[in-house]
Each structure stands twice: as C-alpha cells, then as structure tokens.
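[job 0412] stage=complex_fold ligand=pyridoxal-5'-phosphate status=START
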Amino acid sequence: MHQFHYRDGILHCEDVNLQLLAAEHGTPLYVYSANTLRENYQRLDQALTGLDHHIAYAVKANSNLSVLRLLAGLGSGFDIVSGGELFRVIKAGGNPALCSFAGVGKTAEEITYALEQGIYCFNIESLAELEFISSVAGNISTVAPVALRINPNVDAGTHKYISTGKAENKFGIDHESVREVYARASKLPHIQIRGIQMHIGSQLTSATPFVEAVERVLPLVSDLQASHDLEFFSIGGGIGIVYEEALASGPPDWWTRQEEPPLSPEVYAHHLVPLLESLNLKILLEPGRYMSGNAGILLTTCLYEKKGQAKAFKIVDAGMNDLIRPALYDGHHEIVTVRECDVTNRITADVVGPICESGDFFCQDREVPDFAKGELVALMSAGAYSFTMASNYNSRPLPAEILVSGATAQIARERQTFTDLVAGEH
Ligand SMILES: *Cc1c(COP(=O)(O)O)cnc(C)c1O
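[job 0412] stage=complex_fold status=DONE, emitting structure tokens
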C-alpha cells in the first residue's frame, strides 16, 4: 500500500508532481510519502487491536530524522542496533524508554550511553554479552533491563543474507541454552530480566514461519514466566512487502492496482494474535521494511543508452552506492518512467549506474520501458534498506531525501556536496 500514482500522465507522490520535484532538487533523489508511513503504522496497529502490543520501528530500515519524528509522533517505539541509532531517535524526539537495543556486538561505549539514556531493554545475543552488560551497568551503579534473544531454529524461507533464525546464523541464543542463560541472568546483580525476544528474518511473505517460530518458543515462554518476571515477548520484525509484480501481460501498473501484499497486517494478525493473546505478556513488534519499504522511491535520470554486442544498457545517474539492494542480495525494484509512457514500448535491458563495478546494476535482462537519455525514472519500493545503506563509494555525494505530505515536499536531508565528501579528512 502506498501513495505513488500517475496523475495527468505524471507520477506523483501524494499530491506532489515528481517531475517538478526532480527539476527543483536534482537526481538521484529519494522521495518518501508521509501518509504511506502513517497508514502502514496505523494499519498494523489496528490489525492488532485487542492484543496488548507495542510497535517498535526498526530504525535501520530508514533512519532519517523526519521519518523517525513522524513515527514517534504516532506513538511508535524503536528497535535500535547501535549507539548512533539511539542518538538519532533522541534527536528526532523519540522516547528512549521505548527503545530496544539489538545486535550481536554492542560496545562498552554504546551500552553505557544506552543505560544513561534509560532505554527499555537490551536484547541479549550471547552469555558473554550478558556478563559484559552486567559489568558495564555495575561500573555506573545501575541495573540493565534485558531480554534474551532466542534463536528458534526455523527457516524463514527468505534470502540467506536476511535469514536470522536458523541455528547456523550468528543471531540469538539457541533454544537449548536459553533456560540456563536466564538462570544466570537472574543471579547477576546489575541485570533485570524484562522479557524474551526473537527475530527470524526479513522480507517474509507468508505467516507460516512466524507461526512455526512462535509455536516453537511458546512452551518455553510459559515455562520461563513461572520462574522469572517477564513483562514482554517480542516477536521481531520481518513482514515482507510487494517488490515485484508479474508483468507478463498488461501494463506495468502494480502501483496503480495497489495489490494486496502477500502478507498483509490483517493476515499476520489473524495467524498470530490467537497464539499470543493468552500469554498475558505485552507483545512487541519490530517492523522495519513493512513500515517504510513501499513508502519511498529513488528518482534517477537516464544519462546514456548503450547497445553492447550482447546487451542493451541504460545508464542512469544513481548507482549501487545510492541503492545497493540489487547488488547485495538480488533485491528487486520496479523501474518505471515518471512520464507515463506507451506500455508497448518496452525493451529487454540492463539498467546500470556509473560505478566502476559490474555489480552496479538495478536490473539485468529485464523488460523495462524503452526510455532514452534525459528521461526521469523511478526505482520503486526504495524506502527501506536503501538510503541507510548508501555510501560515498567512487566519491559520490549522498543523494538528497525529500518527505512529502499531501501537497507539501520538505527536504529531509540535503544533498551532500564535494566539501562534505572530505569533511574530517586530513
Ligand atoms: C532488522 C531487524 C528488524 C526489522 O526487520 P524487517 O524485516 O525490516 O522488519 C527487527 N528486529 C531486529 C532484531 C532486526 O535486526
């Protein structure tokens, strides 16, 4: 669900004409829809009505201050994975007391900072980390609230780089050791047990792996409740979004058809609420991609067309440094022209960036609109794991980010300059 659509032959974000926006701010340009973010938050929240729950948006999906401020305003908590993310949340007006700190490699500085800010919970990924957090908390005479992250050993059925709930992944504490680690936690003077957590992977397009994981850990959770003071059970993030539509017949218009995602919030809730409501625990959710993925696009301009011996290339001014998902894990982004074009005028081509890497592509051998030099093009569904993974590789300044709400477009982040590129260097 999102608010990108054609109006009078031009792609709009809500009520903003994207051709005019690109003319004003240049390309590559990230554009986010505030109302899509709001709708996504509210739709998930409403689907869970009746369940004692709280949404903690996973900041790493899109950490722009404007996005965080909008979600904080809706009452969202935050799932963070670094001290820098906590800093952003606070800067955006988010409440540290609604922040959970995940990740396998928290440093002493990050732990101290998070304790000082009074975060809700540290999600513990190993016995060694538990012991260390206790000692850091002891150093500043405080107590660290914790949840153990359990690895339920289920197959999320997603790309191996974004699977996190199998025994061979680096994440979480294996099912068999969890009781022991809780027992140890209960004896540490600077640790307060607060909950239990899991996160099995990202871009899940069916409720089945979630159900399987919850069913696997439920007996353990009930068991632990008997001996420890648990306040919450976090079932993590991972709800998938629609990136790709079969374009075999008809126009490439999935964004105007507004197809139901394979795993809607309602379907997710329908399967999980009955399992969770009897627990008498607060249920936390940590959606990232679901919240922002379809709420953003990357606008780019075609620089050149090139007919190679084996292939046709369309070279655009965005590169893998701006959007690395296709190179990193075969991420799919629909490619459409901002000017609505003749749907029969298509070509099989690679759409590539200017970076000196053969992995610098947005699609390979895909049927795309046969656009030419100067044409403004949109890479759809680029609101999550997109700008946050951007880099300065090839000494390219980071693109600007715009947040649209209705007819208003605000700069959420300025485009970097060459001077920014060398800031701090000696
Ligand atoms: C990345 C992450 C999430 C968010 O995952 P999505 O697939 O974007 O919903 C949630 N929880 C943890 C612990 C994560 O690392």
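The CA atoms of residues 3 and 299 lie 15 Å apart.
[job 0412] exit 0
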